[in-house]
Each structure stands twice: as C-alpha cells, then as structure tokens.
C-alpha cells in the first residue's frame, strides 16, 4: 500500500510539473512569499510600515528623484537586529526633501523642496547637529521607483510591505478553515443522523449569510486590527471545506477497507484520521488553493471599506481605497499598481488550484 501511494504521489507530481501555468504560479507564489518575509530588507524605506511621510513630494510619478536631507535626532531608540530586519526600523531622524543647499562656516543652509514651480522655505541648521560636522553622509539623492503616494511615502516600499498581509492572510485563513471544516465535515459525514442534520443546519445558516457581511460582523465583534481580520476571514471559509469533506466521507465510509477497519476494532477517531482523511485530501487541497485567493480578495475588500488592517499598516486594499479617486485626477498608477498586485496573486492561486485539480484527478 505504501509503495502504491508513493507511486500515485509521484504520478501526480509529474503531471503537475508538465503544467506550465501551475509551475509558473508556484514559483510566483514562492517569490511573493520571499518578498513578504524579507520585505524590510528589500524595501528602500525600511522604517516601520514604510511610513516616512514627505508631504512636499506627495503623488509624484514613478522614477521621481529628489535630494533628501536627513537630520539626526538626539533621541536614540535601542533596537535588535532581528527586530529591525523583520519588523522595520524605528526611525527618530527627520528626512527633509530639499532643492538646494550650501555649507557655511558653522551652518548648513538649505531650501526645502516645493512643487509646482514654487520656492520652498530657506532654513539654517548648525553643523554641530551632525557627527564630526560632516553632512556628506546625510545628504543623498533618493529615487522613488514607483513614485510616492498622497502622503509622500515611497509607494514601492508600501507595496513590498503590504504583500505581508495579503500573503499571510491566505495561510492563516485557510489553516483556520481547514481545522474547523475537516472536523465538522468528518463528524457530519461519518456519524450521519442527528449529528449530520445539526451540523448541516449550522453550515446552511452560515452559508446563507453573505460572506462580506459575516466578516464585517465578526470583525466588529473582535475589534479592528491585524489578527482580528485573519480570524474573521478564516471563520467564514470553513463551510466550503466542511461540505466537501462531508460529501467525500459519505462516499468512502461504506467501502470495504473501512468495513475491515471496523471489524478489526479500530476506534472511529483512528478510522477517520488514518484511513479516510488521507484518501480524500485531493479535493480538499484544491479547494484550499481557491480559498487562498478568496481570503486575499476578502481582506482587500475589508481594507477598502476601512475595517481591515488599520493605518499606518501597509495593505494593498487600503492603498486602493486611499487613491481610487486619483484615477480621474491623472495619476491612476497609485491605485492600479496595488490592484495589479492583488490580481496577479489571486490569479496565481487560482491557476495553481486548477493545476492541482488536474494532477490529482486519477481519471486523466
């Protein structure tokens, strides 16, 4: 039996490898996962949530370059390397976009950047604010590859860090839905009778409520926040898993190997865990891939409505909400770029779900 199951697994793997879009989607998802984990290492703005605001350079086009003056702060916040790499740098220094600067004997004279042909304020700063009175390391050209948002934040950095929420909500939501769905579906399908009727009643009631409405209700009950959204989305997606597991168990539980397991005196828990679930996981894996995509879309919708991840946390859905009116103001890229990110990640999960369905179908 073990060699037979291994051969089926190898056959499914070979079929999956022959599917170009499935393999491409797999590596794209791996790439997004890598970006999500190491976002603060890759992002040009590695401050927490990439939240460095420069209102003087708001809504600038991709490729915009400006001279940036960093004014050191006397307040130093101790921070570990691990915390800095994976959760962002706690920035106390002040960044100022400038148009011109000159060095006096003991002062730094600079003119702040101003757009639309205006001249910015002229200011002076003592050189003693800088270590060894050396300002060369504190004035540099900064390029915003994706431009800046309406608050003057680096859009590329926000996109990279926003990938965390969209990517990890899929894992958390699917994990929660799998635990609840497999347990409820197994109980309903295996025991039948009143247990099945009661669980199906719960499933039907849950399914009758629009998903977005249910998520909003759960989010309001749990409160606004990062983990609350993850839990809320997971609690609304288990019904599909439960129905699939229930249907599969009903069709499998009367087969001869299950009857033999009962005759050997195995407990119901062992039969479900060791003999039934391993043989019905193919459709569950496929529906889990689809649930990944659904979770990303639901979170984006919640963030767009303002009850998802809260500011200043970066979220693709929140970026669309902040900038959708810029579509008619001549700067559509501010909403289109995060929209394309959502679309590409959802499409990748849908394609990998289709590839898994074809690979795990023994009839093909």
Automatic annotation (TrEMBL):
Location of this chain's protein in the cell: Cell membrane
Domain ABC transmembrane type-1: 163-353
UniProt feature coiled coil, ranges: none
Transmembrane spans: 20-43, 165-191, 198-220, 226-245, 280-298, 333-356
Keywords attached to this entry: Cell membrane, Membrane, Transmembrane, Transmembrane helix, Transport
Membrane topology: Multi-pass membrane protein
Cell membrane among keywords: yes
Keyword field contains Cell division: no
Pfam families named in the record: BPD_transp_1, OppC_N
Family named by the database record: Belongs to the binding-protein-dependent transport system permease family.
Name this protein carries in UniProt: ABC transporter permease
């Amino acid at each position: 039996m073990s060699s037979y199951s291994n051969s089926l697994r190898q056959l499914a793997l070979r079929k999956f490898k022959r599917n170009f879009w499935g393999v491409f989607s797999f590596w794209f998802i791996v790439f997004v996962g890598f970006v999500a984990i190491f976002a603060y290492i890759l992002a040009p703005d590695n401050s927490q949530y990439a939240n460095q605001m420069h209102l003087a350079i708001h809504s600038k086009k991709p490729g915009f370059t400006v001279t940036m003056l960093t004014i050191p702060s006397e307040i130093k916040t101790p921070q570990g390397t691990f915390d800095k790499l994976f959760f962002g740098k706690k920035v106390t220094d002040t960044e100022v976009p400038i148009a011109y600067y000159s060095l006096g004997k003991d002062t730094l004279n600079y003119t702040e950047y101003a757009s639309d042909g205006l001249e910015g304020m002229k200011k002076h700063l003592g050189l003693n604010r800088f270590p060894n009175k050396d300002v060369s390391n504190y004035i540099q050209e900064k390029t915003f590859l994706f431009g800046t948002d309406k608050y003057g934040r680096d859009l590329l950095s926000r996109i990279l860090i926003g990938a965390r929420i969209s990517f990890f909500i899929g894992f958390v939501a699917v994990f929660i839905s799998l635990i609840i769905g497999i347990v409820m579906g197994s109980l309903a399908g295996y025991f039948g009778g009143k247990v099945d009727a009661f669980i199906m009643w719960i499933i039907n009631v849950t399914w009758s409520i629009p998903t977005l409405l249910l998520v909003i209700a759960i989010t309001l009950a749990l409160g606004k926040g990062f983990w609350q959204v993850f839990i809320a989305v997971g609690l609304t997606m288990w019904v599909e898993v439960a129905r699939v597991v229930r249907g599969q168990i009903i069709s499998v539980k009367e087969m001869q190997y299950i009857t033999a397991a009962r005759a050997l005196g195995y407990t119901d828990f062992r039969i479900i865990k060791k003999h039934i679930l391993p043989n019905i996981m193919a459709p569950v894996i496929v529906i889990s891939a689809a649930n990944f995509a659904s979770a990303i879309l639901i979170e984006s919708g919640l963030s767009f409505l303002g009850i998802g991840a809260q500011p200043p946390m970066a979220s693709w859905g929140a970026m669309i909400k902040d900038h959708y009116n810029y579509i008619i103001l001549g700067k559509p890229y501010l909403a289109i770029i995060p929209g394309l990110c959502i679309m590409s990640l959802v499409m990748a999960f849908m394609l990998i779900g289709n590839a898994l369905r074809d690979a795990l179908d023994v009839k093909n």
